[in-house]
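hey
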């Protein structure tokens, strides 16, 4: 299509090179084949509308994106894939991990996947700033939730590792909805056997989560001690970004010091500037690694913006900063998977915590599309032969 500026209306001379102008140019190039497929599917599954309805793209039963307030929620109203064996047909897949027995203070994150899915219905598939339409440019599905074992955290970990391993080995980009932060360990454990080479971890949080045990168990304060015991997820490539405040147990700090992980506090980020801090974080996580795993704890954001979490801490990131962080990580590293954890709907107010969680995920997806990383090509570091699942032995 032509980039003739007249196609976009009259632009103020000072805005011709603006992000908005670029977004208008990108939107003009987007097709509508995905939308047409969705309409055809909705009509086939939900019956054609009553004769009085002028818009014949509307079905009798709610299917797909519209109305945003209706339907049975999946993440972003994406198709629910009941047969997990079909996950390899999609570029990315969402899976819920409703585990909160690793919480050491306020439980409730077991409802996080439901809360995120519910408010995600507010969003459409089109992201104005980047000129990306997820419906047109990639395929996304929702696999539902992992069957966790609520009375046994180790058996729950085994279930999580098996689920993530299967999705990842299919070549699909996995997005895990927590759940408390203990899931970081079994998620990395499920991915690691399928990667030829090392994995870096960028952990955005207010808490280090590197203790070996907490109250004699592997809890949500311990995932990165155990993840960095995995041979190809070395501690030197773990970056903990945004740490600080009064909820950072000394036992975890001692482990980080002894193992040489990289901790960056909110003060570090303020003093050196967000982009400089991100440069360092990505340099560490990518040094000698083939892929990067993104772990985003919603409590990394200042507690005033995210009341619905188990360990709220004032003084954290602003929402705009959080979105900038995940966009740069998605664009500038070889991201292999992501998790979003610690959303606790029982403490949320007007779904604002779950809404920001949704935004973090869709911003990552849109950035991967804009950067040409989705639809996903077969990464050179992804093993094609069956990998051993040591947790299943």
């Amino acid at each position: 299509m032509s980039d003739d500026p007249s196609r976009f209306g009259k632009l103020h001379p000072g805005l011709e090179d603006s992000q908005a102008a670029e977004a208008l140019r990108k939107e003009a190039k987007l097709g509508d084949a995905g939308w047409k497929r969705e309409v055809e599917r909705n009509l086939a599954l939900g019956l054609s509308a009553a004769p009085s309805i002028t818009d014949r793209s509307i079905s009798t039963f709610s299917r797909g994106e519209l109305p945003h307030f209706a339907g049975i929620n999946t993440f972003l109203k994406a198709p629910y894939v009941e047969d997990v064996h079909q996950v390899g047909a999609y570029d990315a897949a969402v899976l819920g991990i409703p585990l909160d027995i690793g919480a050491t203070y306020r439980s409730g994150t077991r409802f996080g996947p439901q809360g995120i899915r519910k408010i995600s219905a507010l969003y459409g598939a089109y992201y104005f700033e980047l000129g990306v339409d997820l419906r047109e440019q990639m395929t996304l599905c929702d696999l539902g939730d992992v069957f966790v074992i609520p009375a046994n955290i180790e058996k729950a970990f085994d279930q999580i590792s098996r689920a993530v391993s299967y999705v990842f080995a299919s070549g699909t980009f996995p997005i895990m909805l927590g759940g408390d932060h203990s899931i970081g360990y079994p998620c990395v454990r499920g991915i690691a056997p399928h990667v030829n080479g090392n994995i870096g971890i960028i952990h955005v949080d207010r808490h280090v989560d590197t203790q070996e045990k907490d109250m004699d168990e592997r809890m949500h304060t311990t995932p990165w001690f155990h993840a960095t015991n995995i041979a190809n997820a070395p501690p030197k490539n773990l970056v903990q970004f945004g740490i600080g405040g009064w909820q950072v147990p000394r036992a975890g700090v001692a482990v980080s010091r002894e193992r040489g992980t990289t901790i960056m506090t909110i003060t570090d980020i303020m003093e050196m500037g967000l982009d400089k801090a991100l440069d360092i974080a990505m340099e560490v996580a990518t040094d000698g690694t083939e892929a990067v795993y993104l772990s985003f704890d919603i409590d990394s954001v200042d507690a005033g913006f995210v009341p619905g979490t188990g360990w709220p801490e004032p003084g954290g990131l602003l929402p705009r900063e959080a979105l900038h962080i995940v966009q740069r990580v998605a664009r500038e590293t070889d991201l292999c998977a992501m998790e979003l954890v610690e959303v606790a709907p029982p403490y949320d107010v007007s779904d604002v915590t779950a809404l920001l969680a949704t935004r973090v995920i869709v911003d990552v997806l849109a950035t991967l599309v804009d950067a040409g990383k989705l639809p996903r090509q077969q990464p050179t570091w992804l093993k094609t032969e069956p990998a051993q699942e040591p947790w299943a032995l």
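The mean pLDDT is 93. The beta strands are 92-97, 126-127, 132-133, 140-145, 173-178, 198-204, 238-243, 262-265, 289-297, 335-341.
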